[in-house]
Amino acid sequence: MLTVNYYNDFFEIGQQKINFSLYELSLPNDDPVYTLKKVMEDLDFSGLLANCSDKGRTGYNPIMMYAVITYANMRGIRSIDRIVDLCERDIAFIWLTQGRKPKRDAFYEFKSKKLTSDILDDLNYQFMRRLQKEGFVTLKELFIDGTKIEANANRYTFVWRGSINYHLAGLLDSIDKLYSDYNSFLQDNGFGEKYEFGNAQMFVIDGIDKVRDIIEKNRKRKITKHKKLSNNRIIEIDNCSPIEILKLQKNLMTIADGESIAFVNGKGKRKPKLQQLYEELEHCGQRLMHYKECFEIMGKDRNSYSKTDLEATFMRMKEDHMLNGQLKPAYNVQIAVENYFIVHCYVSNDRTDYNTLIPVLEKHKKAFGEVLEEVTADSGYCSEKNLLYLKENKIDSYIKLQDHEKRKTRAYSKDIGKYYNMKTTVFEDEQVYICHDGRELRHINTEKKEQDGYTQTYEVYGCSDCSGCEHKSKCLYKYNPDKDIDKNKVMKINEVWEELREKSHANIQSEKGILKRQIRSIQTEGHFGDIKENEDFRRFNYRTSDKVYKEFMLFAIGRNINKYHRFLYAKLKKFEGKLQEKTA
């Protein structure tokens, strides 16, 4: 049986105090904190120091604060409270702080006021130039991908453009009636001539008719239990603003003062007609101002936002805790990678990737000059605007097309209604398409379409006579033999877009393009898989796009230094393609 002496060996009657010196303890020689210190020795922190004031009490060393936050992100720690705790208990953090114990307020002030997004970018780009000198990256090729990470916003604080449009249509009808009541009030009492007030003019609205049409269709679809139609059209209003309504209220107050009409309140008191008009105008003006603010927050590019983070957009996420396709407030996070290192980060509130490619490439040009030669991305970035930008900047495109898989099918190559399956010839210096029945489709005219500030040009080709053609059902889109008996074949071709698509498709089908697609899949998607699954980075801790960007950028810098550390200690090697399996 064990005796009490075993306890006395460790405990005394009071409390045994174990004395030891921290400086007698040591970190392993291959600890990543040494790599961090080595990297930071060659960085220029003049931008960070210039952002710190030399007046008042001397605060903590900003370089030390940056080192602590970066090392925390290298270990997957983003919580400030956790960092504060480790500065008191973890030997690596104690070594970085030299025994000092910064509190949470010091870290929050440093991250919010001193460590800006531009400073973070500059420090990361300095590190990239070091990697370029050491041969880890060339900065001549980028592998780009994006993912959606949930914002630090409540899930049920959404504001939808379609919902506002629905209520705005009813509000505009109420304001229209108020304008009529106001004009009748002035005319019936002679106040218009007496005070020289003009009639309230009817406002002009662009897009409201289509909004009302969709509202009516949705009412019918609700009865038949069909899915609602989207009602996200942008409405432009003229001569009907909160300021215009305020002018009418001032006119009514002038009349009230001139005619000694008193405003009354309380039970049993009847409000005069003028007061009723005034209060209705005020109520409508407040609602109109509220909707105006909502539209200004969304802008023209978004159809939703969160009340607790105005810059977050509701997006469809892969993590669906209610299993009903619920939308959550999130940010679209983009990374540009080369040899496992994150060269650029970009945070957007756009639900798609189409508009995120050019900003990333512009960041690369601004940071390193015109050195980029190749870009590899998935089909989410394939648009005429993006491919044309790459062509104009002499950058080879390895971007997968949206119909990449469809092109492999037999139905694609046998579709006789598509221009790419028709023969072509040249007649009088004009290209002519020959359909499956041997009839000519000649050039009719040129059409232009503007979308998101970019103009697309379409060449329209058509057949002069398709009567008697036995291939109409396969050639014409949604052919109805009863209604479309006299319809002729017409097709629109965006020749610039098609040329760019074919060039990019040829690139990704080459041996080099196949290898690049493998590398992109392994490196970019590998990063996101590691970030979300292993590091459990599924939700931001901060709000607004600037703070979200800094949070993710710090995390990316930590990952970059970890990758560099693994390369130095031969724990990671550059991916040069899948190994060929030996045959027996």
From TrEMBL:
One Pfam family here: DDE_Tnp_1_6
Record domain Transposase DDE: where: 434-565
Transposase InsH N-terminal domain mapped to chain residues: 26-111
PANTHER family the record matches: TRANSPOSASE, TRANSPOSASE DDE DOMAIN-CONTAINING PROTEIN
NCBIfam families, sorted: transpos_IS1182 (NF033551)
Name recorded for this polypeptide: IS1182 family transposase
Species annotation: Lachnoanaerobaculum umeaense
